[in-house]
Structures are given as structure tokens and as C-alpha cells.
Amino acid sequence: QLVLFSGKLNTIAGVVTTFFLLVYATVNLACLALEWASAPNFRPTFRYFTWHTCLLGIAGCCVMMFLISPVSASASLGFLLLLLLALHYLSPSSTWGYISQALIFHQVRKYLLMLDVRKDHVKFWRPQMLLMVQNPRGSARLIDFVNDLKKSGLYVLGHVELQDLDMLPSDPLQPQQDSWLSLVDKLNVKAFVSLTLAPSVRHGVRQLLFTSGLGGMRPNTLVLGFYDDTAPQDGLARHPAFTSTREETPLGFPPLRAPAAPK
């Protein structure tokens, strides 16, 4: 308003135009990302819409920005980066969904289809670990040890719940999933979680060997982490991930079994 009163509208005309072109470029970028991710909820009504038009719009806006005013264009891009950083670190979590997850899903599915097990070679073999864990409280060190052994291969934490789903009112594994995922985050291990219900451990391990992984990424090494003749110790309580930050041991896991009585 002060600029309007001073009669120098041309001083901000370049900045306003640059901001408008920048907004239009980001809209085209969002549409391009949705198109490349094959998002099922993205259904543009523009008859001639393709990803080529998105690229053309982005390139045209960027060229026009610098043709109008290189200084204003550079300042606008810098302001945009600051705004993105502020939104990333200061804004609360939203439930709108992240386009990055859709892009990752699309790329992972495409490369999994390209991963042909018939073309595997022994010199590129790597261990794909399936670690069976009865109770994470007593297996924290073993989880870290197998994480070091995997050598950039697949790593799956498996757990068998000895129950029968037909005799239960609901699936008991669903509320446990969050506890296991939080455990993976706290221990900072690059692992997936796979839980199953079975009448015995043998049947459960067989189920996880058949169902864990996808395509060419399937476990080829089974590690059993059960100790029946050793008194269990709560390794999570002394793990650096919890002692250094003074955080409580994650809830959701049952207490360790009592040591066996001497015979």
C-alpha cells in the first residue's frame, strides 16, 4: 500500500510477476509429480494434459522469470527455499499425504519388477536375513548384531504369536505392529517387521519364510534368536538408544520370562 501511495508501482511489478510465475511453476511441478507417481486420486479434466505440458510450463515459467528480472527471480527462489525449510521443520504433521511416498512406491514397484531372480549371480550374492525374535527385550544385542551382518541386504524381524485367529474376537497382531515399528526406529536398524499367528513356532517360521519379502527380495538366511537354557536379560533397558536420551523402554512388549528353576 505504501508503494501505491508513493506512485512507484513499477518497483514491485517485477516481484509480483515473478511470484506469480513461481506459483504457476510449482503447480506444474506438483501435477508432474502426481502424474509420474500414477496417483489414483489425480484425474485432471484438462483434455490435453500430459507430463510434457507440465515440463513445458515449468521451463517456460523459469525462463520468463529470469528474462523479466534475474535479481527478482533469484530472490524469489531463495525465499521459496526458506519457506520450504520453515514448513518442513516448523509445521505440524498433516494428514494430507506426501507425494514423496507415492513417488517412492511407484519407483520401488517398478524396480522390484525389474529384479529378475533368474539373473542372480553368485558374485553379487548378499545375505537376506530373517531374524526370529520372541521378545525384543531380551534380543536387543542380537538385533544389532544381525543388522551388521546383513551387508545392505534385506533384513526382516519375525515374530510368531502362538494363538489361533479363529478362536479370537480380533487380530491381536494389529496393536503390536506399532510397537515393533517404534522399536526399529529407536534402535536405528534398517529392518522390516513381519508378524504372524500360528499354532507352533515351526509353522510360524515356515509361514514367514514363504510370505516375507517380495519378488527378488526374499529371505535366504534364517536366524533363530531363542535361548531356553539362559536366563534372559532386558537388553532394551541398557541399550544406548534409550539410556542416552533418558527415554523409557517402549511399551507393548511383555516382560521377560522368569529364569528356570535349578534342578
UniProtKB/TrEMBL annotation:
<feature type="region of interest" description="Disordered">
    <location>
        <begin position="244"/>
        <end position="263"/>
    </location>
</feature>
<dbReference type="Pfam" id="PF03522">
    <property type="entry name" value="SLC12"/>
</dbReference>
<dbReference type="InterPro" id="IPR004842">
    <property type="entry name" value="SLC12A_fam"/>
</dbReference>
<dbReference type="InterPro" id="IPR004841">
    <property type="entry name" value="AA-permease/SLC12A_dom"/>
</dbReference>
<dbReference type="GO" id="GO:0055075">
    <property type="term" value="P:potassium ion homeostasis"/>
</dbReference>
<feature type="transmembrane region" description="Helical">
    <location>
        <begin position="12"/>
        <end position="36"/>
    </location>
</feature>
<feature type="domain" description="SLC12A transporter C-terminal">
    <location>
        <begin position="141"/>
        <end position="229"/>
    </location>
</feature>
<dbReference type="GO" id="GO:0055064">
    <property type="term" value="P:chloride ion homeostasis"/>
</dbReference>
<feature type="transmembrane region" description="Helical">
    <location>
        <begin position="48"/>
        <end position="68"/>
    </location>
</feature>
<dbReference type="GO" id="GO:0016020">
    <property type="term" value="C:membrane"/>
</dbReference>
<dbReference type="GO" id="GO:0006884">
    <property type="term" value="P:cell volume homeostasis"/>
</dbReference>
<feature type="domain" description="Amino acid permease/ SLC12A">
    <location>
        <begin position="3"/>
        <end position="130"/>
    </location>
</feature>
<dbReference type="GO" id="GO:0015379">
    <property type="term" value="F:potassium:chloride symporter activity"/>
</dbReference>
<dbReference type="InterPro" id="IPR018491">
    <property type="entry name" value="SLC12_C"/>
</dbReference>
<keyword id="KW-0472">Membrane</keyword>
<dbReference type="Pfam" id="PF00324">
    <property type="entry name" value="AA_permease"/>
</dbReference>
<feature type="compositionally biased region" description="Pro residues">
    <location>
        <begin position="252"/>
        <end position="263"/>
    </location>
</feature>
<keyword id="KW-1133">Transmembrane helix</keyword>
<protein>
    <submittedName>
        <fullName>Solute carrier family 12 member 9</fullName>
    </submittedName>
</protein>
<keyword id="KW-0812">Transmembrane</keyword>
<feature type="transmembrane region" description="Helical">
    <location>
        <begin position="74"/>
        <end position="91"/>
    </location>
</feature>
